[in-house]
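Quick board copy: two proteins, each given as sequence then tokens.
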Amino acid sequence: MSRRRNKKRPEPRQAVIESLSHDGRGICHVAGKVVFVHRALPEEEVVFRYCRTRSKFDEGDVVEVIKPSPLRIEPRCAHFGVCGGCSLQHLSPEQQILHKQQRLLDNLKNIGHVQPQTVLPPLTGPAWGYRRKARLGVAFMRREQVVRVGFRERSSSFLADIKRCEVLHPSVGERIGELAALIGALSIRDKIPQIEVAVGDDNVALVFRHLAELSEADLERLRAFGQEHQLIIFLQSGGPKTVSRLWPEGEESANTQLGYRLPAHDVDMQFRPTDFTQVNAELNRQMIARTIELLDPQPEDRVLDLFCGLGNFSLPLARRAGAVVGVEGDAGLVARARENAQRNGIDNVAFHAADLNGDLPAEPWYREGFNKLLLDPPRSGAPMVVKNLPKPHASRIVYVSCDPATLARDIGTLVDQQGYTLVSAGVMDMFPHTGHVESIALLTKS
């Protein structure tokens, strides 16, 4: 009978960190093999223990910092290093954004084979309590008979044991322990896998996903929690269409609606708790301002906004452009965009639902004629769009991206195959303390 042999991990090693990876891990070499070391910074001398070995590289975690980097700071969160929500709290926010800027420039050079004529100054905002959207995992720990609420442990499927979150909006981040106690008191505490968080300018909503029926006592506990903490409570028993409001009860009113304001553009946006919205309200306002500055919409312009969502860019643009057409793959978001346009009295904008990875020339809006284009795709980028641009080609394109690698790939296509020039590019710190890079680029064509 064969017996599986446990592979023994190497003993802790001492090393000098050479550089920082794209996701914020220190990089060193041991016996010619790359090791990614969590919580280590360039030029530091550290002792690390191996936490994972692979054929081409290993992973480690800092045990001791022998010679710290002058850039190292004390993490604010007591759970940093265990919780996987953040990876860069040991590096100052000012240095974090410079690291992200270099990552963008490296991707443009190495993937897109392009360089911007100008590097835009980074956009930054609040470093703590900024996150307005999140999906919190929930787990009932049978052995300990307790409930955990939060994010997963780093490199693990288990939830981290946290009591508060420093990056979540304080209305939720300071109540992680209370949420765990609330769910622990429910009859179906082992059937609540997730809480979705949505924060507006005036209201906060929690969506409790449940896999079994809640008792009347459970419902009353949830109502009481919402009332005590002034939270809107939703339930979700299945897909998105099953989301329903539990508290406050009654008809829709101002205190049951989520929204955010864009004062510089005289626009008020409303959204549903499961809709996609930007997580960082202050950065979103700055991002819109920079987008408008770069796109420079004029009264005679026709602007096409692809991946428009619920109109986050479209409606501010319509305040200045002659006409705006927004296109989005999610029909629910398109409906919300139309509602927002009507609510704000904006009548020079039209919205369409379409698969932007599909047959674009077959779409009715494709041949309407546009001289300026805005792209804000998901992480996968916009490969079909940049290969099938509506003709005549827009003279100016602004590309907003949440992944610098796909941005670089698509910009390479626009430059090499479509004849555009990369004028400028820069980063925006939408997610401080994480490896996430939000970026923006301007391309022109004469």
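And the next:
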Amino acid sequence: MSLKLKKVNKRNPRLPEDAPKFYASAMHGRKIALDELASSVSERCSLRRSDVHGVLIALMDIIPDELGRGSIVNLGKLGSFYVSVKSEGTDTAEEQTPAMVSGMKIQYRPTKELRKQLRMIDVSYAN
């Protein structure tokens, strides 16, 4: 397995007057669709593709619900998803209100095992 890279010329937004530099950027060849993912999973277990597809659809419904409740969704060896919040700062706790929340993001934290596997991937530049 080898991840293909491309060379991208970018300016530093903090130092726009500096000359742009080249950086490595991952090339994404394709997007794997839910049906294809279900087929791949069904080939590795005793469940039929339709059963796996149903489980994945249910998971896509459950994860946002659990994140909205403030849960950390742990997917075993894949890692965890959780919500982080960005807000304005206030001098006292009493001044802080939900209206001051300016954004939320879904964060992903891979397991140590998955990060270790990621370091084992070979990289090369595309021709």
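Board note added afterward: The first strand starts at residue 2 and ends at 10.
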